[in-house]
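MOLECULE: protein
FOLLOWS: sequence and fold
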Amino acid sequence: MKFSKRDCRDFVDLWRHFPRLDRKHTQLIGPCDSRYNCIAWAAGVTNIHWWPYDGEAGVAGYDGTDTFWPAGAPVSEDADAFVAAFKTINYKMCENGLPENGFTKIALFVRNGRVRHAARQLDAVLWTSKFGCQSPVAIHRLRDVCGYYGQTTVFMRRPTNYVTKQIDARRVAVEVAKPMNVSTIGGLSFAEASRQIKRSSFEPPKPKRGYCFA
């Protein structure tokens, strides 16, 4: 997989805001794409935002033009609403994020009673996450991206062979998303991304406070 210089810069810049990210395991695994957010990425959707939306007024800045929310799920940012949304694509509650053979898990990050972020399990070692319109990445430890997003207090799972359908502009499921094969991701490491932007000696500056990718 090829990445642009912008993809590499944004990826390297993550360490400004998340300095605890493991440089060895964290990988850039996709291009920047503003069409979908972290919740959609956790759901396996890459062509529309997932966020509480009631057809008239979006929540948290989403105006609904590119936003989908499953029918029947409460229009709220609390954890119960997101649990209900993920249940529509066959996820069920589970106790923790430990790997289980035959299952894919997701984690919801909750701060002050509101869901702020989500991540999806790739394999026994890696999770994948997306920060706003930036590129999706593979990460080693969920706690490395806590802090601003809160804590991973909710975990859900579903059979690995289940795939989510993509949502078109009419909010109709039309295309089956392909499950990601970790062994063929072809991701880029911190060092490789730094070399691509001719900053192999880059050292991330001190983190800013209040930065939000959501």
The first strand starts at residue 27 and ends at 28. Confidence is low (pLDDT under 50) at residues 57-64, 172-184, 199-214.
